From TrEMBL:
GO terms for biological process: amino acid transport. The lineage of its organism: Bacteria, Bacillati, Actinomycetota, Actinomycetes, Micrococcales. PROSITE patterns: ABC_TRANSPORTER_1, ABC_TRANSPORTER_2. It holds the Pfam family ABC_tran. SMART domains: AAA, NIL. Residues 4-246 form the ABC transporter domain. GO terms for molecular function: ATP binding; ATP hydrolysis activity. Keywords: Amino-acid transport, ATP-binding, Cell membrane, Membrane, Nucleotide-binding, Translocase, Transport. The keyword Transport applies. This is ATP-binding cassette domain-containing protein. InterPro entries: AAA+_ATPase, ABC_transporter-like_ATP-bd, ABC_transporter-like_CS, ACT-like_dom_sf, MetN_ABC, MetN_ABC_transporter-like, NIL_domain, P-loop_NTPase. SUPFAM superfamilies: ACT-like, P-loop containing nucleoside triphosphate hydrolases.
Length: 342
């Protein structure tokens, strides 16, 4: 079980041979990742996500600030010291990074060879790892003989070989189709739950955050613009960046274009009901409207699960005479969080 903390981390990349200021890739980033947590770092291209990951595993050196993995401060270590720390940090990649001239078993074995494990022990460990990721029957296969999902499972087995406390995942599902992506996310969930490994994943897909993460850091322009429990960030995003990401992964209120289409098709009043938890009493909502003699149809949105809790926004068309609708909306506002769409 390993906690990871970044405190006031800054990374500037000098521009050698150029008369320009260094690129400020990471700007005063602090993240506290609890032991056993799945923490997502999300942001648009260029936000600084990859740099943060490379700073954690020591592929880049911090310009300022401090990074600790468990008890070990990893910022400021030299290459020799880092070699001792790296077995504790597994890493998986978007394009899997498997060695094409080696079999699946040899790819998984590779970090154990580097770590100096005796041959007999290595074979047993490789078997165990392949069984964990469900690829026992592919031990002798080569990279070209595997599907994308299988390649990533090999990547995961290899990353787990040295028993790391932390797994770093760099866009691990971005190259996979949606179904395979869900399978890999399910495997990562097992890595976390069964092995207690802390996972730090970077992604530009909010659906990955929703599926897997406990907490999320939203980055923009090298800075942290929002941070918190996944459900909180999904249900009450504070920054523009988080709001835009949330809108990509959740049924929300209709956007301007959808709204004009809805208006063209539906003449009644439009009202959005916001679901932020299981606490919302759906039958009560419909009963409240029916009792006021108002007809209802669902015209947009839906509900989904975020962090095991219900969340979503459903837009209803209310049909009936104006006064009844006015009363119905007032009554609805007493039993649910609503937004009248004008
Ligand atoms: N080695 C480097 N030298 C100079 N600038 C760099 C270097 N690495 C990253 N940068 C710059 O730092 C900023 C952050 O890059 P980074 O790759 O961390 O972003 P990202 O959020 O991971 O984006 P992407 O999703 O496209 O990988 C960018 O402006 C990038 O051009």
């Amino acid at each position: 079980m390993t906690r990871v903390t970044l405190t006031g981390v800054v990374k500037r990349f000098p521009q050698p041979g150029r008369d320009t200021a260094p690129v400020l890739a990471v700007d005063d980033v602090s993240i506290d990742i609890a032991s056993g947590e799945i923490h997502a770092i999300i942001g648009y291209s260029g936000a600084g996500k990859s740099t943060v990951l490379r700073l954690i595993n020591g592929l880049e050196q911090v310009t300022e600030g401090r990074i600790a993995v468990g008890e070990q401060v990893v910022s400021g270590l030299d290459e020799r010291q880092l070699r001792r720390v790296r077995p504790g940090l597994g890493m998986i990649f978007q394009h899997f990074n498997l060695l094409h001239s080696r079999t699946v078993a040899q790819n998984v074995e590779y970090p154990l060879v580097v770590a100096g494990m005796p041959k007999a022990e290595r074979a047993a460990r490789v078997d165990e790892l392949l069984a964990f990721v469900g690829l026992e029957d592919k031990a002798g296969a080569y990279r070209e003989q595997l599907s994308g999902g299988q390649k990533q499972r090999v990547g995961i087995a290899r990353a787990l070989a040295t028993n790391p406390g932390v797994l770093l995942a760099d866009e691990a599902t971005s190259a996979l189709d949606p179904e395979t992506s869900l399978e890999v996310l399910a495997l990562l969930r097992r890595v976390n739950q069964e092995l207690g490994i802390t996972i730090i994943l970077i992604t530009h897909e909010m659906s990955v955050v929703r599926e897997l993460a406990h907490r999320v850091t939203v980055m923009d322009g090298g800075r942290v613009v929002e941070q918190g429990d996944v459900f909180e960030v999904f249900s009450r995003p504070q920054s523009d960046t988080a709001r835009r990401f949330v809108a990509t992964a959740l049924p929300t209120r209709p956007g301007p274009e959808q709204l004009s289409e809805l208006r063209a098709r539906h003449r009644g009043a439009l009202v959005s009901v916001i679901f932020r938890d299981e606490g919302v009493d759906q039958p009560l909502i419909f009963r409240t409207l029916a009792e006021r003699g108002v007809g209802v149809s669902i015209v947009h949105g839906g509900v989904t699960e975020v962090g095991g809790r219900l969340f979503g926004q459903v837009t209803l068309e209310l049909i009936g005479d104006e006064l009844r609708i006015e009363h119905a909306i007032a009554a609805l506002g007493q039993v649910a969080e609503i937004e009248v769409i004008h």
